[in-house]
Structures are given as structure tokens and as C-alpha cells.
Amino acid sequence: MKRVLIIGATSAIATACARLWAEQGSTFFLVARDQEKLEQTAADLRAHGAKAVALHSMDATDVTAHPAMLSSCMNELQQIDIALIAHGTLPDQKACEQDVNVALREFAVNGTSVVALLTLLANQFEAQRCGSLAVISSVAGDRGRPSNYLYGTAKAAVSTFCEGLRARLFKVGVNVTTIKPGFVDTPMTQGLNLPPLLLATPDKVAHRIVDGIERKASTLYAPGFWALIMLIIRCIPQAIFKRLSL
């Protein structure tokens, strides 16, 4: 039985992961903004075999609310075996270019709030000296593309933060997994013109994530072929890359 904390628990990928852990009889502490969706998710997980599910409503960008959330989580679970940070948005790049307030708000959702949560959770895991901390970043953070560089910048910050945190927590027996999904068929990507051959289902991504956390993977591309795609993209010379419309 695992004790699992999920922040952004109502997202499609997080829910798919939770179902897999529920089938193992895990206990959950679920965090998201929408209480009604949280309750629906909890009912779904109980139907899939979850031993117990506790809920906590919180806006992840409200950094002042993080300590109370973690305190409630520890009261419920006593110890965290797996923490998955899965909240985020897919910003409108043009809107971010036109309005600095929009840009900063989206960066707070996808970057700053994640770093704040990681900082808080890292101290808890360091005290435990065990467990796995997993964060959904994105392939978008591997290189800045004109179509979504605000989002990519936030994810790059998260990925770099995780790299340093991984080295710190490894020394006390805690693993940090950076998850980099590619195109996933979720409500967040609905309406985007994405290549069908590269579009994965949340279930497929979830199986890779759950398996990767179990294996204590450091960086996890999901699906795995994105590792090769992003290697190629990173190797494109800047003189050529800046002329591309990616």
C-alpha cells in the first residue's frame, strides 16, 4: 500500500496515474482547486480500489496556503511515499506577449508555484529520508520555441530546479523524477492542431509515469520516443533554429 499526495489531482494525467495506484490499494491525499471535481475523482478512485481518499481544496498559486495543505496531508497520511505535482495550464503565447500581467500569471502557475511546492515538499522528504517526488514538466522546456516560449521557460525552470533537487535528495534516499510529456490528448490540448501520430492518451502516459516512479527514474519522457525527438531538436544549430516556425 502506498501513501500518495497528488497536487493538481483532477488533471487528466494525474487522474490516470491515481487509478493505477488505486488498483494497488493506495491511500490518497488529493489537492486541486475545484472541490466538486475533487469529489468526483475521489469516488472514481474508491471504485478502483483506493483504501482511503482525503481531499483538500487549494489554489496552487497561493503560496501562503502550501504549509497548511502539507500539514493536513501529514495528519492524514503520516508519511508520503509518492508525491506527484501535476497542476498547470497551457498559456496563450500571443496573450503573454501582449500583456505582462498575463505572462507573469501563467509563469506563476507553471513555474513559481511548482518551485514553491517542491521547496516545501523537499524538506518533508528530507526529514523522512525515503519516498519519491515526481513533477510533471514538459518537453517544451527542452528548447525555447516561438509558439510557446513562456510555457517552455516555466517548464525549463522546473526541470532545472528538479535536477539540482535530485542531487540533493539522492543523498538521503529520496528520488526526484522529472516527467516530460509530449502531446497528450487532454482537455488542456483540446482544439490544438496536433499530429495524430504523436498524440498519446493519458492512460498510456500514466502507465509510463507510474512505472518510471517505481524504477526511480530521473528524467522520464512520455511516451519514450520524445527523448529522441527532443535530442534532435536540441541539436539544431541556433542559426537554423531561429528561422523555423516551431
Automatic annotation (TrEMBL):
<protein>
    <submittedName>
        <fullName>Short-chain dehydrogenase</fullName>
    </submittedName>
</protein>
<dbReference type="Pfam" id="PF00106">
    <property type="entry name" value="adh_short"/>
</dbReference>
<comment type="similarity">
    <text>Belongs to the short-chain dehydrogenases/reductases (SDR) family.</text>
</comment>
<dbReference type="InterPro" id="IPR020904">
    <property type="entry name" value="Sc_DH/Rdtase_CS"/>
</dbReference>
<dbReference type="InterPro" id="IPR036291">
    <property type="entry name" value="NAD(P)-bd_dom_sf"/>
</dbReference>
<keyword id="KW-0560">Oxidoreductase</keyword>
<dbReference type="InterPro" id="IPR002347">
    <property type="entry name" value="SDR_fam"/>
</dbReference>
<dbReference type="GO" id="GO:0016491">
    <property type="term" value="F:oxidoreductase activity"/>
</dbReference>
<dbReference type="GO" id="GO:0016020">
    <property type="term" value="C:membrane"/>
</dbReference>
